[in-house]
Amino acid sequence: MAFGVFEHVEMSGMCVALPTQGYDTKTVAKDMDERSLKRFIKSTGVEHRFIAKKGQLASDLCFSAADHLLTAFDVDRSEVDACLFITQTPDYQEPSTAIILQERLGLSKECIAFDVNLGCSAYVYGLYTMAGLIESGAIRKGLLLVGDVCFDQMKDQALFGDAGSATLLEYGSGKISGLLRSDGAGFQHIYVPYGGQRHPFDFEHPELLNEKQVMDGSAVFEFTIREVPKLLEDFNQMCGKSWDDYDAVVLHQANLMILKHIAKKLSIPMEKVPISIHKYGNVNGVTIPTTIVDMVQDTAPKREMSLMLSGFGVGLSWGAVSMKIDPGRVLPFIHTDHVWDENVKGESKWRIMN
Predict the structure, then answer these.
(1) Calpha distance 131→106 (Å, rounded)
(2) Residues paired with residue 16 on neighbouring β-strands, in sequence order
(3) CA torsion through residues 79, 118, 45, 309, sign
């Protein structure tokens, strides 16, 4: 069972970077009539989102978030022992993008750096993994980077947005608990069949280049409302907690209908379930930190907050984490359109692509 309690881990900084380009759903959903558009917004909740410009990658957004975070809190970059980058849109098939970010961010060569391929559950899996490394004594300070940009064929859809996040975790007086689960029997419910080694791109059939993400929406919905509430109930029982113990229950912003179903099934008051999907869309693994930043800058109290976080989706994978945060360590959103030039040494040589 992947249940862990990490007694000496605290969140010491969080930042989310968004692209500068924002789009209203009414503007981009050109293939919908007015009735369909209203139905879409009512079910998904998406009214607005931010989309990366051409050439801007998840690594660029995560770099901006991490660089801003490390600078804002005057973190000695030589003390960062680990850089974990979780994405489904890496820069290259190889090497790991985290290793490139280690150099871009000016982290020590003693820093371990590696990628993890996860989507909607990325943030809770990342917190669990980094907390485990810290609790074990292997490292004392780790940088968790979670980011994604839409696949090309999703750019014109009205559901998905782009974002990158950076979270600094370190050895301290905090406590992080987590419970993770996975079920590969449902891997085809959300997957990209072509482009890997099992089904390589066949240039004699270029039409396959346009067949990217495949999603069975009804199967994903059924999985979510069946398995996620059960996991959250199990997690509370293992931790000896109830909904009264949390200031907020931050769920992956898959769509508004799913959020309401989970809250209703578990009798969680909606005022404890912050919603951000109407402002940013579904930003995949980044929805949890995006929602935290949105909540903190809008309504958070000036005191420590107790949170339950839950991510769920592609894999199928799902999980929950509980942690406390100091709102003063959560930075406001930053907006960026910077793009890294792989042929120029040093981030001061950034160029902006048109």
Answers:
(1) 23
(2) 165
(3) negative
Distance (Å, whole) CA 309 – CA 166: 16
Mean pLDDT is highest, among 105-109, 157-161, 189-193, for 105-109
Q: What residues form DSSP beta bridges with 170? A: 10, 141
CB burial readout 73-86, b (16+ within 10 A) else e: eebebeebbbbbbb
Give tens-digit pLDDT for 74-125.
999 999 999 999 999 999 989 999 999 999 999 999 999 999 999 999 999 9
Asked whether the beta carbons of 328 and 92 are under 8 A apart, the reply is no
Pairing of the two strands 190-191 and 214-215: antiparallel
Q: Is the distance from CB of 123 to CB of 289 less than 8 angstroms?
A: yes
What 8-state DSSP symbol labels residue 323?
A: E
Q: Which of 51, 59, 55, 53 is nearest to 22 (CA)?
A: 51
Rounded to 10°, the helix 97-104/58-72 angle is: 40
From CA 56, how far away is CA 338, in angstroms rounded?
7
Confidence (pTM): 0.93
Distances (CA, A) of 95 to 48, 63, 101, 103, 304: 34, 17, 11, 13, 39
